[in-house]
Amino acid sequence: MPAVTTRQAPISIRRLRRAELRVHTVALARFLIGKIVVRELCGARLSGRIVETEAYPPRDPAAHHFRGPTPRNRSMFLGRGYAYVYFSYGNHFMLNVSAEAPAIGGGILIRALEPLEGIEQMERHRKTTRLLDLARGPGRLASALRIDRSLDGTDLCAPGPLWLGAITRPRRLAPALLLGKSKRIGITRAAQRLLRFYQRGSPFVSGPRSLRS
């Protein structure tokens, strides 16, 4: 099991270019494991490494885009690399990344992060000092990073309050990621499809132990 992240100085993160984003939802969901979500706040930068995603490809009956665009889900039809943020069960917000060509619905739920920067501020947002619980699960993640509907439609490949990145380091030093996959969590339609991806061995992955080994 990898070491748990500790507080550290700002790290070097470059913004992902849209051309780097993999074509098709499932490929992009796999590609995003190990990439970085960056949240820019006034006077602070919060970031975390993506360790868990769920893919919701075109024609998926479990997806919000299944019946076509609406005022609520229109961000899923903008093309690859835009934020789709929705409020779930009157409880918490969830961050998704749009994943297909313009006018085609597709999305990736970002389910969990390994906190990297701004950990003390995340702790204040979440009212806990338990590192493993700061962003393990999509609701906790959004709370830790102060993500809400005001960020819906944000271009995640452009300068702004929320973006996707990758840590800049020599290729020879990049650690190998062991990718796991399983059925998605908390859905009833198309529930057996293996469209959830996660970093094996990461203590920051959410869900029952049987789905994160």
Structure description:
There is one protein chain. By secondary structure, the protein is mainly beta. It has a single domain (13-199), classed as Methylpurine-DNA glycosylase (MPG) (3-methyladenine DNA Glycosylase, Chain A, Roll), CATH 3.10.300. Helices cover 11% and strands 28% of the residues. It has three helices and nine strands. Strands 1, 2, 3, 4, 5, 6, 7, 8 and 9 form a nine-stranded antiparallel β-sheet that branches. Helix 2 (119-126) packs across helix 3 (138-145). The longest helix is centred in the middle third of the chain and has 8 residues, at 119-126. It starts with 12 loop residues before the first strand and ends in a 14-residue tail after the last strand. The mean pLDDT is 91.
What is the succession of H and E elements? EHEEEEEHHEEE
The number of domains is 1
* CATH architecture field: Roll
The amount of helix comes to 10-25%
Q: Return Rg in Å.
A: 16 Å
CATH domain class name: Alpha Beta
Give me the number of helical elements. Answer: 3
- The separation of the N and C termini measures 11 Å
